[in-house]
Specification:
Elements lengths: L4 E4 L2 E4 L3 H11 L5 E6 L1 H7 L3 H9 L2 E4 L2 H9 L9 H14 L4 E5 L2 H14 L5 E5 L8 H11 L3 E5 L4 H9 L7 E4 L3 H6 L7 H5 L3 H8 L4 H4 L2 H13 L1
Parallel strand pairs: 3-4, 3-8, 5-6, 5-7, 7-8
Antiparallel strand pairs: 1-2
Helix pairs in contact: 4-13
């Protein structure tokens, strides 16, 4: 399957269904290591100020429309595209690896949060084999040791919950040292899987208002989303015209 995509302000977003995106990255990882980006407007705004990060967004193997703002931008361009939440995408890949007896590795979050997430995932997913788990509180000087430890256990999937842009930069820096490995930056997913943070109710998710739920429960996010989101949508409208 080839990549079908739409350019939004200079960054390509893949136009695939949830299942097509899963199949695409699994198939591609049979030949080489892959990096999946779960893109949102804040990432595009940051990339416009950071050349290295922009290059990662533009050259990733798969860029899925995670943020509601990206889905809305595609609608402005006349494209009806389902949103693919990164947390659900990563969970499906975890389930695939478990079903195929493929080991996985987790990097990120607090030590206690990571332990809870691993425990809960193992309880929920039969045959899940987590061969490596490391919290996100490490120095740059420790990276080489961490990478060597992960290489020894040869996971099929590596999830990095280090926050944007650190997780994307970390993945790009080291992914070529691995063979046929799936890399995904998953932000705060470990917090949700651990049970410490609750996702929006299903009604909010179906209506595309998960962002609003998170805003209600974490008002500090307001400063990050605004004015970034309105400016992003304004640029999209101008670009369309």
């Amino acid at each position: 399957m080839g990549r079908k995509h739409k350019e939004i302000l200079g960054y390509n977003v893949d136009l695939l269904s949830f299942n097509e995106a899963i199949d695409f990255i699994i198939n591609k990882s049979q030949k080489e290591s892959t990096q999946t980006i779960t893109i949102n407007p804040e990432m595009i705004a940051y990339a416009d100020q950071n050349e290295e990060f922009a290059k990662i967004l533009k050259t990733a193997d798969l860029v899925i429309p995670d943020g509601f703002g990206i889905q809305l931008a595609l609608r402005i361009y006349g494209i009806k595209q389902e949103r693919i939440p990164g947390i659900e995408f990563a969970r499906k890949i975890i389930e695939y690896c478990a079903s195929q007896s493929m080991p996985i590795a987790l990097i990120g979050a607090k030590k206690e949060t990571l332990a809870k997430a691993c425990k809960k995932l193992k309880e929920d997913i039969p045959n899940l084999n987590i061969v490596y788990a490391k919290d996100g509180y490490f120095e740059d000087t420790e990276e080489r040791q961490i990478i060597e430890q992960i290489k020894e256990v040869k996971p099929k999937l590596i999830l990095a919950a280090l926050g944007v842009p650190k997780q994307e930069l970390f993945i790009r820096k080291y992914m070529k040292e691995f063979e046929k490995t799936i890399f995904i930056g998953v932000g705060g997913s470990f917090d949700v899987w651990s049970g410490e943070v609750k996702r929006a109710p299903i009604m909010f998710r179906k209506m595309g208002l998960e962002w609003f739920w998170r805003l209600i429960n974490a008002p500090a996010r307001f400063r990050r989303m605004f004015p970034t989101l309105p400016i992003f949508l304004f640029k999209v409208i101008i670009n369309r015209k």
